[in-house]
Amino acid sequence: MLSLTVFCSAHTGIDPRYERLAEEVGVEIGRRGWTLVWGAGTVSMMGAVARGARDHGARLIGVIPEALLSRELGDRDVHEFVVTRDMRQRKAIMDERSDAFLAMPGGIGTLEELLEVWTARTLGMHNKPVVILDPWGDFAPLREQIEQLVAKGFMRREAADELEWCVDVGDALDHVARSVS
Fold this sequence. Notes:
The protein is of the alpha/beta class.
């Protein structure tokens, strides 16, 4: 059974379309019979991806640092609920429990998680797919920055090409399925 780590926002007050996107991702994870590995939050996009996955039969592994339990209202209605010492341990557990990574729009935490798994892939520390689901262009400035880094010689083209950019949920998860099998 494929395990997919999803990085996304736990911030409330965002446009509801982002929660609908996250729920659609969760539904599709469940329909495919996959496992969702995520930050165990119940709010915003984090909560929506888990609800969609749970409602459609996915296995859920929630990983949350002790310090965030109260802020993100840790979702304990899961197959595995892992409480970690800190963010570093959280990310290590999510990394080892996952076959692939999917980033959706989010804040600084999402960016940090995305950049870390992408960097590890480019350094040969893992060969797991790293996919960005960006239907509304929220990551366009990041994509432009990456192209600037390549153009100025700070980054190899091969490193930039390690990311898969998608605008459609089905395409993103199909890429994961093809890359893992």
